[in-house]
Amino acid sequence: MSDLTGKVALVTGGSRGIGAAIARRLAAAGADVALTYQSAETAAKSVVAEIEALGRRAIAVRADSADAGEVADSVHRAAAELGRLDVLVNNAGIFPSKPFEEFTVEEIDRALHVHARAAFVGAQAAVGHMTEGGRIISIGSNLTDHAPFGGIALYNLSKSALNGFTKALARELGPRSITVNLVQPGATDTDMNPADGEHAPNQVGLTALGRFGAADDVAATVAFLAGPAGRSITGAILTVDSGTNA
């Protein structure tokens, strides 16, 4: 396991699913962890309690990732309350899905704000607190490389922005020894997309391994990138999708 002893991480959207798994995994590796949530306060407090039970410090910050001010404030609060910031994980996300003609401008803006603008603003705020060895890791989607069904044009538009952002920012922050990477999950067993759900058989049929991934599979990849072994990996896009895009 990666050694993150003495490090502080912020995981956006860390109250459930992949975000919660990442928060727990980073804490298990030794990091103190801040996490944001929009509405799931009870779930966020539960994750905080689990992290504290590991002997680590943890805080939950309410922040809507569609609000640029709240995104920046959550970063600054994490650094202030936990004393530093070494790792930013841009995980918060939504899944807008319907025929593209039906999306309103407001829905388009929200998806772009949550996925693209929040990652940009969060990184802007984070680098002011980071020293050499900082890590910025975003959570994208394997669907941006291969769209096997309709209804995801807006989702893919907003998530695809992270691909170019990751590569450009990695180049820009390289001289400061801050790495920037993107992890792209595929079908992952969470409460939003359970492995025994209505649409699971179709998703499983697309994978090479014949199964859903687990949230901890993604979390393990993030922890590796956040740790010492990931120091020479930057500008990379790592796909964790049970071989769907193979």
TrEMBL record:
Tell me the domain of life.
Bacteria
**InterPro entries, sorted:** KR_dom, NAD(P)-bd_dom_sf, SDR_fam
Q: What class of enzyme is it?
A: oxidoreductase
Q: Which SMART domains match?
A: PKS_KR
Q: Which UniProt keywords apply?
A: Oxidoreductase
Q: Which GO terms describe its molecular function?
A: oxidoreductase activity
Keyword check for Zinc, yes or no. no
**Domain Ketoreductase: start-end pairs:** 7-186
In short, the EC number is 1.1.1.-
UniProt lists the family membership as follows: Belongs to the short-chain dehydrogenases/reductases (SDR) family.
Question: Could you tell me what this protein is called?
Answer: SDR family NAD(P)-dependent oxidoreductase
